[in-house]
Each structure stands twice: as C-alpha cells, then as structure tokens.
Amino acid sequence: PLRYISKLRELVKHEAEKNKSQWKTMGPAKVAVPSPNDFLQKRSKEPKLAPKKKEEDGKKLLPLSVPPRTYHPVTRIKKNFISKNALAVMTGEPKKPRHFCVDTRQGDKYLLEPSGLFPKYINKKNYGVLPKYVTQRNEEMKREEEEYQASVLEQLKKKAMKVLSEEERTDILKALKKNWEEINRAYQGLPIVTDTRYKQMHKEELELKLKQLEHDIAAIEKHKCVYIANV
Asked: Can you say where in the cell this protein is located (predicted)?
C-alpha cells in the first residue's frame, strides 16, 4: 500500500519555517555598515535657532520684545485689605454659638449636631410631610379600589335577581303539576314485584322526581313573591 501522507504537511512546514529566526539558522542578519564620513560632530544635537528675517523694503523690523502702540498695560489697583476686612466684620452676621456636650470630669466635649442628640430634623420645612411617592401611591390605591368597587357593583347589577310575575308563577306551577301527574301515572303503572335491579332503579328514580316536584310545588304555593337570578 501507498505510504500515508498527511493533508496538513504543507501547513506544518510553513509554521516551522515561520517560527525560525536568522540567528538560529544562518547567523546574524546582514545590515548596512555606517560610513566613516557620517561621524557624530560636536554640538550637532543642540537645538538651532530660526534664521533671522531680512529687512523688507528698507524698513527695519522691530524686535519682538517691543509692545505695539495699541497695547494698554493692566494697571494694578492697590487695595486696603485692613479696611476691607474691618468692613466685612462690621456688616457681616455674627457667628452662632455651637452646641457642645461635656460628658467627663476633665471637660472633654463633642459637638451635639453630628452626634444625633440635637433635634436637627424636626426643624426642617418638610418635617412630618408625606413624601410625594407615598401620596401618589395612596392615590393609585384609592383609584384602584374605586374601580374594583365599580366593577363589583356592575357585576351585581348584571346578576341581580328579579321578581316573577303572577302569570309566570301560575304557568310554572301548572307545568310542575302536569309533570307530577305524568310521573305519578308512570309510577302507578309500575309492576308490584320488583325482582330485577333495573326495576328497582327505575322505581327509585321516579320516587326522587316525585319528591323534588312536590317540594318545588309546595315552595311556589307557599311564597307569592319568587325571585330568580339572571345567570
């Protein structure tokens, strides 16, 4: 069989050649040797001044140190700091005494204001006033409560009970009595012997229906005002 040759052979060769340096293979790199004529001269690295400007049109240029005619020097005004300070002291507000607390026999004292013992916060303008975010939150809660109460009232109005009229009451009563007569007729037609499970279940079902109809007929006959819900 043919000898195995990797597909990455060229890539490995390229990486190996790229990482090699000239010092490892062929010695130091060949660099151009400086010429003996280009030697370092004396004061060659010192900064050189710009060349002087020549006179233009016979006019002699003034040196840069001379100010122009439009230049106005700033005159310093002498201030009497003693009288100024005295006037500031006379017109200024007097310093307020600072509150101290002495807690030792040697007279060690400390300021009351940063210690927390001085009633500092009760003198604020907004002391005891509810913050804006609290009032805003209370208003939102109140509005939500009102919306909830309105929705509950609306739901109650939708589900409000109404009174049956006399005609509807009599019609329902007649229909219930008619159903009772039909079921009673079917109950009377049952066989005397109930020897099967089906006959027993049928008899119990008719008895339950008769009891429910008798209960409904008695409730409607007893109460003249009947309320029903709009569901």
From this structure: Cell projection, Cilium; Cytoplasm, Cytoskeleton
